[in-house]
Amino acid sequence: MSNPFLEKIEPHLISEELIIQEFVLHALNEYPNTPAEWTNRVLEKAIQSEKDRSSLLIWAKKDALNEDSVPLLLKLLEVIEPARKHLVMHLINELKPEIIVAFEKELSPYLEKEFFTFNCFLLEGEEENLWEEYGSVLASLEEKQFFDQDLFLRAKKILHILVLQGSYDEVEIDAIMQEELKAPWFSFNGILAVRAIGLLKLEKYIPVLAGLLERDEDTLLEEVADALYQFQSDKVVDAVAPYAIKDNSEIFAISVLANTKTDSAVDALFKSYSVIDEDGKGLVIEALSHQFSNKTFSLIDDYLKHEYDDNGLIDMEQIFYSFYKIFGKEHPDMHLWKSEFDERERLIEESENLSQPISNDTKVGRNEKCPCGSGKKYKKCCGN
């Protein structure tokens, strides 16, 4: 079955220009149906291109890896500079348990024995033991003073197995959500129930998830958005569109519309531009450009005419240049957009060379500025 979005984007997947390469991979980053072979093509280029390696690894899809990815990741560990090795390890940690176990010999020089023991447990553990470990991990997450990304990933991996086994089902979700929705804040148990809704594609929860977009809980919001991406449905568009024009929910709501690749989502984004606040207009243009919609051009013209300010959290010059270039169009300011992007990348590279990677205990909103000082959104820098 053809996929119009993927057909549009594939010719530009591996671009010779970093500015376009980043734009295309950003458009794919949160889309749930990216082919694994595309990620492997990105990894192959990362091996070959030292100059673009960090950018390529930041944008490589963690959830689109397969067995063929492992030799590429191992090669990257050989060639990448030590300060950037964490970018590869993030990807290895996201491999499916069966792949990790199958490649234990090759991966063992880089990973602790407990990591393999845990992944074997995921594949062979009894249901009762899996539930016991899941409860223990949830309790640890709640007890931690700071967010623990590694522990959260551990919980997600157990959850996936329980869902695959049919042990974590709609009945379980209903019971958890009933309690969580009464509370002022979601617990990690509730946050992961949201993730399970996406895994099981339970349509009855679409309006509930859309309503959660007004919450001020970043980890919850990330899982809500990710769950809504999974449906690729106009039911999601209908539920989310009203939240795309509200100040307290626009960021994640617009992201959901950007990653729901339907004509209805494009229409909803286009309509939102005229009523959304100034800060949100850049988000809408970015979202429409990631839909590869011709409607983006008229909004770019309006944005430039009124000289709107994006607060520095969106690389508008990158969007403008890449979008025009991909569609084969010219604009008198293209050289300026390109030079501004290049200068920003140079400054970011200098900053990264002086900074340490953000630790797993540092919890930063993915749409906030990265604490490393790069000036980019966290999700476009250390939040990979």
Overall description:
With 384 residues, the chain is mainly alpha-helical. The chain has helices spanning 4-9, 18-29, 36-48, 53-59, 69-79, 85-93, 97-102, 104-107, 113-124, 127-143, 149-165, 170-180, 188-200, 206-211, 218-229, 234-240, 250-258, 263-273, 278-290, 296-306, 316-326, 334-354. The longest helix is centred in the last third of the chain and has 21 residues, at 334-354. The mean pLDDT is 92.
Number of helices: 22
Q: Tell me about the biggest sheet? A: none
Low confidence ranges: none
Beta strand %: under 5%
SSE topology string: HHHHHHHHHHHHHHHHHHHHHH
Q: What distance lies between the first and last C-alpha atoms, to the nearest angstrom?
A: 30 Å
- The overall pLDDT, averaged over residues, is 92
Helix-strand makeup class: mainly alpha
Per DSSP E runs of 2 or more residues, the count of β-strands stands at 0
Summarize the model shown.
This protein has 384 residues and is an all-alpha fold. The chain is built from 22 helices and no strands. Helix 11 crosses helix 13 and helix 18 (263-273) packs antiparallel against helix 19.
Descriptive labels:
384 residues; 62% helix; 0% strand
Give the SSE map.
Blueprint: H1 4-9, H2 18-29, H3 36-48, H4 53-59, H5 69-79, H6 85-93, H7 97-102, H8 104-107, H9 113-124, H10 127-143, H11 149-165, H12 170-180, H13 188-200, H14 206-211, H15 218-229, H16 234-240, H17 250-258, H18 263-273, H19 278-290, H20 296-306, H21 316-326, H22 334-354
Helix pairs in contact: 2-21, 3-4, 3-5, 5-6, 10-11, 11-13, 12-13, 13-15, 15-17, 17-19, 18-19, 19-20, 21-22
